[in-house]
Specification:
Layout lengths: L2 H17 L1 H8 L5 E3 L5 E4 L3 H16 L1 H13 L5
Antiparallel strand pairs: 1-2
Length: 83
Amino acid sequence: MTATHYFITACIKAHIDVLGPSAALAVARKISSLTIADNGDVLSLTGAPGPVVEELKKAYILFAGETSRALLRVLTQKYPPLS
């Protein structure tokens, strides 16, 4: 599993903790290049990882605003090369 997979999985799981699994997974599963397990694990990622990460970030921010921004700030501190 790549660092990008770990970051995306951490992002999804953080949103599951805050938004609940139904909402968090629904947002993540709208990203067509991602396949996500019911527990939030990334099963597959197609295409360039950078744009996929950005698309996921934007989708969560659009859905949950400041809550997602706060979660993403914490995650990008933990995974700085991906920010």
